[in-house]
């Protein structure tokens, strides 16, 4: 199974962009996170991602039709981390279990972000993806 078309498009857009605009492009995803449902405010039922420099929480739910619902919470003061999650939220919207699990662990490197942001931030973004995929695997 391949990744969802939208995530592939996002990766290709970043990978082909000039290095000097990659950070600007990343920050365009800061507001792509949908608001948390009321029952998750306060991070109830969410998992913290301690590898992130800021407090970051996520939750994935596999639905009976094998589609994955996902929620992310990160403070606005952490735009890079919010943008990582925004890319996943937009690129994996309506994705199946198989599509989520097909996302390569070096996603952010493939996008060219390793050359634009610190290795510590890339590691945090990779940890977000790894925890999301682990939650999906555990439920499928």
From TrEMBL:
Domain Fe-S metabolism associated: residue ranges: 13-135
Gene3D superfamilies per record: 3.90.1010.10
SUPFAM superfamilies in the cross-refs: SufE/NifU
Pfam families linked to this entry: SufE
Family: Belongs to the SufE family.
Xref: PANTHER family: SUFE-LIKE PROTEIN 2, CHLOROPLASTIC, SULFUR ACCEPTOR PROTEIN CSDE
Protein name listed in UniProt: Putative SufE-like protein
Species, as recorded: Planosporangium flavigriseum
């Amino acid at each position: 199974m391949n990744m969802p078309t939208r995530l592939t498009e996002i990766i290709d857009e970043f990978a082909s962009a000039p290095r000097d605009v990659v950070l600007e492009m990343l920050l365009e995803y800061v507001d792509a996170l949908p608001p948390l449902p009321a029952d998750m405010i306060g991070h109830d039922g969410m998992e913290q991602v301690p590898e992130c420099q800021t407090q970051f929480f996520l939750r994935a739910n596999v639905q009976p039709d094998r589609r994955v619902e996902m929620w992310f919470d990160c403070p606005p003061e952490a735009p890079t981390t919010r943008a990582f999650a925004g890319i996943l939220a937009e690129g994996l919207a309506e994705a199946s279990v198989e599509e989520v699990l097909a996302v390569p662990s070096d996603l952010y490197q493939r996008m060219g972000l390793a050359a634009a942001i610190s290795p510590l931030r890339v590691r945090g973004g990779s940890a977000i993806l790894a925890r999301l995929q682990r939650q999906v695997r555990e439920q499928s």
